[in-house]
Design goal:
Length: 254
């Protein structure tokens, strides 16, 4: 487990968002705390990542460590809820977050689990400036918190190695998303702290496709993600009106 210190830079950074999540950093690994909805969401996004990655890189999804030999960058890694299971599946994982408290929480928890994960306080732009690239770049529930979505996606695309891929998960800017993700989740049900999301920062799928295409990537798969209150579970859905995920591929030899 490694921790690399650096100073965040724009356009990834929205200072108000950094301050917001700094105040919640200690709750990352509490399944009944402020990040309870993300803990519930984790199984469906992990399953999606596993399916997409195994299909693209011809890996055996039934293998104990199907991601062995693959490098993954998790941008906006938070407390490491994705980094840890991806490491257990064999990947070499780097987690980057602009909130220093998140990185410290993630590093401490990884150490307690005996996991070798590189965590750093910084931004996608800083990793890009180092000339690094990865087989998979993850942008999971982060693009709705950045300052400049188009530039952020352009920079993230440059971090994908030839033949690699990017997976994005975010919230659609629709009336339905406003009612469910903000009014419902934050104010009625109290699943999230009030003010966690700003509707104007939600991102329509075409606002992701455009910069990805311009950066030479091809959107290969899209899916909605829906919550069933009767089963208390998330699952993939044809409805992309609220939560959705998108996979984009970069040309090259796999």
């Amino acid at each position: 487990m490694n921790v690399v210190a650096s100073s965040p830079a724009t356009p990834s950074i929205d200072p108000a968002e950094i301050e917001k999540f700094s105040g919640m950093a200690a709750d990352w690994w509490d399944p009944n705390g402020k990040f309870k909805p993300l803990h519930k969401f984790n199984p469906v996004r992990l399953s999606y990542i596993r399916d997409q990655l195994c299909a693209h890189f011809a890996k055996d999804p039934k293998a104990l460590k199907p991601f062995k030999g693959l490098s993954i960058l998790d941008i906006g890694c938070g407390g490491g809820l994705l980094c840890e299971p991806l490491t257990r599946l064999g990947a070499t994982v780097t987690g980057v977050d602009a909130t220093e408290k998140n990185v410290k929480t993630a590093a401490s928890h990884a150490a307690s689990q005996g996991l070798d994960i590189t965590y750093r306080h910084g931004t996608a732009e800083q990793v890009l400036a180092e000339g690094r690239s990865f087989d998979l770049v993850l942008n999971m529930e982060v693009v709705e918190h950045v300052a400049d979505v188009r530039q952020f996606m352009t920079d993230c695309a440059a971090l994908v190695a030839p033949g690699g891929m990017m997976i994005v998960a975010t919230l659609n800017r629709t009336p339905k998303a406003y009612m469910l993700a903000i009014v419902g989740a934050e104010y009625v049900l109290g699943w999230l702290p009030k003010g966690t999301h700003q509707f104007e920062k939600f991102v329509k799928p075409e606002e992701l496709r455009a910069p990805l295409t311009a950066a030479g990537m091809r959107v290969d798969h899209e899916t909605g993600v829906a919550f069933n209150p009767l089963t208390d579970r998330w699952s993939l859905s044809r409805d992309m009106g609220v939560n959705y995920m998108m996979t984009a591929l970069k040309p090259g030899i796999v």
